[in-house]
Amino acid sequence: MSDRHVLLVRLAAPLQSWGVGSRFTYRDSHSRPTKSGVLGLCAAALGRDRRDDIGDLVGLRFGVRADRPGTPMRDYHTIGGGTYPLRPRDLITDHRRADAVEVAQSGQEGDVFGHHTLEGWYGSPKYIHADPGSGTLVSRQLGRDPLVTERWYLADAAFVVGLEHHDRAFLEEIAHALEHPRRLLWLGRKSCPPTGTLAGPLVEGTVEEAFTGVAALPEADEGSRVWAWIEPSTEHVTGAGEQVLDQPVTFDSGRRAHSVRWERRTRVTIADTAIEWEVVP
C-alpha cells in the first residue's frame, strides 16, 4: 500500500483567469491554473483568513493536467467616463462631499472635492451640481476620460489538478471543503465562478500515477495523450524542469509574497482502464 495519496480537482468554467504578473491596467492569465491560485481556492473553501498560516497547503505536491486547454480571450475593459451620480455613502464617508452638496442644493456652484489630481485619470466626481432635468446630483466635469484596462481569460477550458500528500485525512478535509465551501470560490478572478463538481477521486499513489489512472474529463478534447505540468518530488527538486514564481508564502494583503518552485512539462497517456469521473453539473 502506498504512503502517498492524490486528490484530483476538476477546474472547468466558461471563463478562467490565472494571473502571474498582473497590474491594475493589465491583467494577464497563465495558460493553466497556478499553484498559488489553486491553494488560494482551497484556503477559501476551508474558511481560512488571508493572514492564516498556509504551510500545510504549501506542502502539497502540485500538478496540472490540461484536458481542454481552452482559448485565450482578451477583454477590452473601461472604467469611468460620463456623469458621476453621487451615492448616499459618499455623503457619509467624506464631509467635503456633504459640504459641496449643501452648496449645490442652495443654488450655488459646488466646490471641488476628491483626491485624484492626474488629468484624465479615473477618480472621484468633481464640481457637483443638480442636473436641471432630473434633479440628480452629478459632476459638471464631463470631460474625464475613462480608464482603459486589458484583461485576459481562458475560455471553455477544463483542467485536472492533482494535490499529493501523505496525510489522506487532510486531503479528505480539502475535498469536503471544495464541495461545501465556507467562502465564495472562483477560478482566479471573482468574475469566474467554477461549474459543477470540483472534488474528484481520491486515489493512492503519486500525481503521475493519478493522471494516467483517472479518465479525461467529460469536457476534454479527443485523444488519450494530454499535456501536464508536474512539481517534482522533494528528493528531485533542483534542476527538474523550469522555475515558476507561484509558490505562495502568505496571502496576507499587506505583505503578499511568492517564492520560486520547479515544475516539469510532460505528456500523459491516460490508461484504457482509467477511473471515470462522476461530475454533477
UniProtKB/TrEMBL annotation:
<keyword id="KW-0051">Antiviral defense</keyword>
<dbReference type="GO" id="GO:0003723">
    <property type="term" value="F:RNA binding"/>
</dbReference>
<dbReference type="Pfam" id="PF09704">
    <property type="entry name" value="Cas_Cas5d"/>
</dbReference>
<dbReference type="InterPro" id="IPR010147">
    <property type="entry name" value="CRISPR-assoc_prot_CasD"/>
</dbReference>
<protein>
    <submittedName>
        <fullName>CRISPR-associated protein Cas5/CasD family protein</fullName>
    </submittedName>
</protein>
<dbReference type="GO" id="GO:0043571">
    <property type="term" value="P:maintenance of CRISPR repeat elements"/>
</dbReference>
<dbReference type="GO" id="GO:0051607">
    <property type="term" value="P:defense response to virus"/>
</dbReference>
<dbReference type="InterPro" id="IPR013422">
    <property type="entry name" value="CRISPR-assoc_prot_Cas5_N"/>
</dbReference>
<dbReference type="InterPro" id="IPR021124">
    <property type="entry name" value="CRISPR-assoc_prot_Cas5"/>
</dbReference>
